[in-house]
Write a structure and sequence with these properties.
Blueprint (H helix, E strand, L loop, with lengths): L3 E5 L2 E4 L3 H11 L1 E4 L3 H5 L5 H8 L3 E2 L4 H11 L8 H9 L8 E6 L2 H13 L4 E6 L11 H10 L3 E5 L5 H11 L5 E4 L3 H5 L8 H5 L3 H8 L1 H11 L1 H8 L3 E4 L1
């Protein structure tokens, strides 16, 4: 299996297909991260988040802006592989329909919607957990660890905010003896479950998801878009390496 890897600030981004992502996760376990441009900017001042990204098994190119920065600043071409697209492929993957899933959600309404969505896609073994409000730099959740040990999910999907979900994934992995697969999906699942911004395949393919999110909640997302601009400078000054495995 030949995988193209781009190392950005010691974070390994994989420019590979869904099938190869799943194969690698099946083989190695660990966690998948899908960082947005505004989240990547945070690695400069949020060390916990930075360490969680570096320890991830796979990072994928969710941000179209990041892909464009790599192309026009470093002349490196990669394919955008958004969280929206990844979740769409995952819920239509028949090989996973009989696996045990655990969904970690931020609130009860989201939890109910996500559960209904997965059931509509014919997933059989499904459990939800509403996460408490975690302290960003000190995530501890003994109740969640106990649930995981008892339920023994094959895949955990974390649907809480970026910057915390990756730290939570690293925390879970570090506390379990048995390896497990974790997907840090952030808002990606909510797009499909009828929550959040109205994003579809066309909008995602044309790199227009940021516009949909601004229209949905301008107070939050205008700030995030402005923050994302700093990523161009980070790309320019970073030593980025391309390798294969």
């Amino acid at each position: 299996m030949i995988n193209k890897i781009l190392t950005f600030n010691k974070i390994k981004f994989y420019d590979i297909s869904y099938q190869k992502v799943i194969k690698k996760l099946f083989q190695e376990k660990g966690y998948l991260v899908i960082p947005a441009a505004s989240a990547l900017v945070q690695i400069k001042y949020n060390n916990k988040y930075f360490q969680a990204l570096k320890k991830s098994t796979i990072a994928i190119f969710d941000s179209g802006y990041f892909c464009l920065c790599l192309l026009f600043i470093k002349f490196i071409k990669v394919k955008k592989f958004s969280g929206f697209k990844f979740i769409k492929k995952l819920v239509n993957d028949n090989t996973l329909k009989k696996k045990k899933f655990l969904l970690l959600d931020s609130c009860l309404d989201e939890s109910n919607n996500n559960k209904l969505f997965f059931k509509s896609k014919k997933f059989i073994f499904l459990k939800n957990y509403v996460c408490p409000i975690y302290k960003p730099n000190n995530i501890i959740d003994e109740a969640l660890l106990k649930l995981i040990l008892n339920y023994k999910p094959f895949i955990i999907i974390i649907n809480i905010g970026g910057g915390k979900q990756e730290i939570l994934a690293e925390y879970i992995i570090s506390k379990l003896r048995k390896k497990i697969i974790i997907i840090c999906s952030g808002a990606a699942l909510s797009f499909h479950a009828g929550q959040g911004a109205k994003i579809n395949t066309v909008i995602d393919t044309l790199y227009l998801g940021w516009i949909a999110r601004i229209l949905y909640n301008p107070k939050i997302f205008i700030g995030r878009i402005l923050l994302s601009i700093k990523l161009a400078k980070m790309v320019y000054y970073s030593d980025i390496k391309v390798s294969y495995e």
